[in-house]
Amino acid sequence: MEIRYATRVKLGMAFIVLVILASTLRQLTSTLSSFRALPLTDDISLYEQRFNEVKHFLPPNQIVSYSDEFAKTAKNCNAFVLAQYSLAPTILAVLDSKCGYISNSGEVSSHRSRLVLDNSHDPRHEPYLLRLFPSTYFQPDNNPISIAGGNFFHADQIVLLHDFGLGVRLYARGGK
Amino acid sequence: MSFLVAFLSFLIPLATGLLIVSVFWQEGRSYFSDLILKCFLSVGFGFGSSSCLVFVWMMTVGRLTRGVFILELMLLAGLSALLICRRRASISTTADQPENIPIPCLSKPYFLGLAVGVAALSAIVSFWYLSLQNPHGKFDAYAIWNLRARFLYRGGEYWTNYTYVTWSHPDYPLFLPASIAGSWEFVGRETQLIPIVIGLLFTFATIGVIAMSIARLRGNRQGLLAALILLSTPFLIIHGASQYADVPLSFFFAATVALLFFQAESPGRRHFLILAGMAAAFSAWVKNEGILFLVLLFLLHFAVTTLAKGGKNWGSEALALFMGASPVIVVVIIYKLCLAGTNDVIAAQGLVSTVPQLLDISRYHLVASQFGKGLFSFGGWSPTFAMPVLLFFYFLLLGTNIEKKHMATTTIAVLLPVLMIMGYFTIYIVSPYDLARHLETSLSRLLLQVWPLAILAYFAIVQAPERVV
Fold first, then answer.
1. Cβ–Cβ below 8 Å for B468 and A5
2. Cis omega (within 30 of 0) on the bond before B13?
3. For A12, which of B166, B168, B397 is closest by C-beta distance?
4. Domain boundaries, chain A
5. Rounded Cα–Cα distance for residues B274 and B371 (Å)
6. Which end of chain B has fewer CB atoms within 10 angstroms, the N or the C?
């Protein structure tokens, strides 16, 4: 009886280990085969490159207004979040959107700069954007809002300071 | 070259961690006793103390500079001196050290060892693949932790400006950002290798601490089985590679309870309690959930120790726990008072909205059903044999055995994850957000936080196969 119980325990343990080992081996094989499909540079690093130039023009201690064509709804904030990640320590305050709410306290207002960053996307020029953002971002109802046609700056005079290419443009409110 | 520089940047925190653990380790033992376990523990204690120093330095000096490394080296020197002094003082008492009770030894567990080796290889390959695919981590990594590390490193005197980024949870503590920024400062540039390696160290140190602790307490087979279970939890590896703070948090939860078990092995001394208190306080420095853990630990310790050993014992044990925790608690309080904004869940909460939520039965139903489903699926296991089902089978097979000296600690170890889950349950009930979405985006992470701790508690209860066979 004693031996039978010991054997039962050993068999039970072997069963558990074999079940785990089988799924581990399956996982290992599938991961190893996935290595071939890895791109040389990851999508976020590629996306960061679009801000390489503009970051030299942004003040490190101020809040810069920001707009992109996706940020109209709270669920389409990825581009804004990645722009903030790339451009830290400059703080981006997204305009007319549910993304990136920043309270408008007196202290915050005193840090606002006159600069406005426009960040628009075209997957025809940057195909990796289709991997980086959900495909719904590029649906017809998400048509890009041009900065001039947008309703953010009606009260202000907006002047283009520099076009950095790939849809990244820096504007200034109230003249250069 | 990058690997070498990154490795060098980790040397100071890891050496500091090893010295902290060694200073409070069992007196009279060799420096090299339990060395692997101490090395695993040193990951948490090293980055914990280093991140606290980085924060205190930045608050004092006004920005991150290399001067912080002088402070770290001074701590390293102080700890080395303390270790030598303690070693000299304790050499004469070596004879009366309680030895671990030898567990009956069967043949060597070669098959189990082989399985752990394969699982470890698979986990390392997965981690490597995921890190190559997402070197910046997943959403929370670049939206919160690495973003804040960039503010700390790039911000100069304006490093506190991250507090204006209210959508990025500015109340979250700085353990991970300060660890990353400190290493970047050492290296002299930003490299994604740093957060990747920190994620790697914490993922495997968590598994290592659990496996080594269980092996020490319950025998090698149980330890290897625990390692196999954690290595075969795909979500733990995925999440470690995602560079989120949940894995370091789970490390501190597990380390706290493992150290409480070691204390039960040598009840006359309080050194492990000091380390346990420190580990629990570091969890509060990693994420806000750690504050709940710290409070629950002290409450449970009070209740269980008073019942099991009487009030006098509780007083001296609680003092040791508090001695370990207090320096880190001070740092957390300074952070919360001086920098952290209001917690978004609390800020959006009002009595008017909380009461109807508490009385809404449909919310309880939704949260309970999601918890029920989540418990069997959060780990990303095969749906055919979910790990909790296998563990239940193993439990039925071997039965339970709790040693008398471990009874109080085992009670704490079991109740802590249960109460943590009850706490998370309550937070969901009063959540001001869309409940279904809140559960969808966070439940699996919260369950993962307590998973290693639950495994430790589980193996503290289940009979060791060496004793059965």
1. yes
2. no
3. B397
4. 2-37, 43-173
5. 34
6. N
